[in-house]
Design goal:
heterodimer; A: alpha/beta; GMP Synthetase, Chain A, domain 3; four-stranded mixed sheet; three-stranded mixed sheet; 7 strands; B: mainly alpha; about 0% strand
Chain lengths: ~170, ~260
């Protein structure tokens, strides 16, 4: 009878770090805060919990599939990937390294999410987002919505470059 | 002779409640998606497609959960593609043809403002999974509200043409807003169980936001006490829903066993 090869939680986390976001290939799903939890029971069965970023994000199905493929490729025999809806993903879960990588990739990283309760008061104000290329604050919002659900479009008036900003939610 | 009415169970009420929320979002998402490739400018084309994607995403999550609550082996596609117009309980507001850009924006603003206040309260629902999805969707609703409100201001306080057209849109939409605050035995039971919200509690907040926005946009506020349409939560719709469903459902119904590979 074949026995299950037992993996440690650390190993599973390392495997998950090899899975990158299909839309933003410089980031992996651990630093994105998408992979939330790894549990291994006594018989070695692995449970991975991932949480969706945007509800309509088409990359989510792809990410789930990539996790399956990665765990199989790494020889994890028995595992379940569960989409966890009870937790609400926020850009605050993104690691600092991930934000630096985003900026280097040309996407202005998300800043800290706004305080609850200020939303209605600040309906008309737009935040100043520094340009990821030249760090100028002379930028303007072009549209709240961009090429993917998670990004908005800006323009830098100093270096005359359009750029994307990872929305903070 | 008295007719004995069967008492509404919590399961039935919760299922109905989830379907009403989901139907609003699916139908409005489908309407907004009609702009894909037809937006007045590239950024707006993307924005409306994004909002559609969010709304359809919200509907999918709600339908999936509804299927779980119903427990009859259905999935989200069953609710979206295999029910007829009388089974849909979306607001008539959501099914109206997309009209011009001003109409689409005016409707989105009225709906997103309502959703914002509704979801702000629903996020404390006594059901972890439901509250979780509400919290997630609320973040996206805020973007929809911000965006549609900015466009109402820009169109209303823009050119004479844009002002007149968005004014006309609000005038036309007005008789469909009464339904936003419709409540029946389903809502009553949900409120009692801590799963639903009492929309009369935030009606004033919603009206205030709408009034302030229209005033800032130099638009006239239509009469709050005018005739209002009703019936959609019981499956009564305008003639437009059937046409929308025909277009949305025909492919799935022609190939009921088809699967994405």
């Amino acid at each position: 009878m074949p026995t299950l090869q037992i993996h440690t939680e650390k190993q599973i986390w390392d495997f998950l770090k090899e899975v990158t976001d299909p839309e933003i290939p410089v980031l992996n799903i651990v630093e994105m805060g998408i992979a939330r939890n790894v549990e291994i029971n006594e018989s070695g069965k692995v449970l991975v919990k991932i949480t969706p970023t945007y509800s309509g994000c088409p990359a989510m199905n792809a990410i789930e599939k990539l996790v399956h493929e990665k765990l199989k490729e790494r020889g994890v025999q028995e595992f379940t990937v569960k989409l966890d809806f009870a937790e609400t993903w926020t850009t605050d879960w993104m690691t600092e390294e991930a934000k630096v990588k985003l900026k280097d990739y040309g996407i202005a990283p998300p800043e800290k999410t706004e305080e609850e309760g200020n939303f209605l008061k600040n309906l008309s104000s737009t935040k100043v987002i520094p340009c990821p290329f030249c760090d100028s604050f002379e930028t303007e919002l072009v549209s709240q919505f961009g090429s993917t659900a998670c990004k908005s479009q800006y323009f830098c008036n100093d270096c005359d470059q359009p750029f994307e900003h990872f929305k903070c939610i | 002779m008295t007719t004995k009415t069967k008492e509404l169970t919590q399961q039935e009420a919760f299922l109905t409640y989830l379907l009403r929320l989901a139907d609003d979002r699916l139908i409005l998402g489908q309407r907004n998606a009609e702009w894909c490739g037809h937006g007045p400018q590239l950024e707006e084309d993307l924005a409306l497609a994004n909002i559609s994607l969010d709304l359809i995403g919200h509907a999918t999550a709600l339908y999936e959960y509804a299927a779980e609550i119903e427990d009859e082996g259905h999935d989200e596609d069953h609710f979206a593609f295999f029910r007829d117009d009388r089974d849909f309980t979306n607001l008539q507001l959501c099914e109206l043809p997309r009209g011009d850009f001003g109409f689409t924006i005016a409707r989105q603003f009225l709906f997103s403002a309502f959703s914002y206040f509704q979801y702000e309260r629903l996020k404390d629902a006594k059901d972890e999974q439901f509250a979780g999805m509400v919290n997630k969707h609320l973040k996206e609703i805020k973007y929809h509200l911000r965006h549609s409100r900015e466009w109402v201001l820009r169109l209303g306080d823009g050119t004479e043409e844009s002002h007149d057209r968005v004014q006309e849109a609000f005038d036309e939409l007005w008789m469909y807003i009464g339904e936003l605050f419709y409540m029946d035995e389903v809502d009553e039971l949900m409120i009692k169980e801590g799963l639903g919200v009492d929309s009369s509690k935030f009606k004033d907040d919603w009206k205030k936001l709408v009034e302030e926005t229209l005033e800032e946009a130099t638009l006239r506020i239509p009469d709050w006490d005018q005739f209002m349409m009703s019936g959609s939560r019981k499956g009564i719709h305008t003639e437009h829903l059937g046409h929308l469903l025909a277009q949305m459902q025909f492919l799935r119904r022609s190939h009921p066993e088809a699967e994405w590979k």
